[in-house]
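Private note to self, pasted from the team thread so I don't lose it. Backbone tokens:
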């Protein structure tokens, strides 16, 4: 199984030479979000992990979250979200609800 999964990462990028599937450092997203928070003090504290849970708990369907996170399948997303199923909401409904808050 390790051979099959070797070289597959959840968070990747394309480097300046065009090489794909380069792994992000584990702290990259957290540091990026901290940087944004410093520039926009009106934003609430959040982490990538919290955002996944927030989207699911707000009713965003698992497929939409999976697509936004560029996961190859919803099974990966389900591992990270790890919440019970809720009534799904379309992306448009989710965006509208978020704007009203």
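Design output:
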């Amino acid at each position: 199984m390790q051979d099959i999964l070797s070289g597959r990462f959840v968070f990747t990028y394309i480097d300046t030479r065009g090489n794909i599937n380069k792994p992000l450092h584990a702290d990259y997203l957290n540091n990026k979000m901290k940087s944004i928070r410093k520039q926009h003090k009106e934003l609430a504290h959040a982490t990538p992990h919290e955002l996944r849970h927030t989207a699911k708990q707000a009713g965003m369907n698992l497929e939409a979250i999976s697509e936004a996170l560029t996961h190859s399948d919803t099974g990966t997303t389900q591992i990270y979200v790890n919440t019970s199923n809720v009534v799904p909401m379309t992306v448009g409904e989710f965006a509208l609800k978020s704007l009203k808050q």
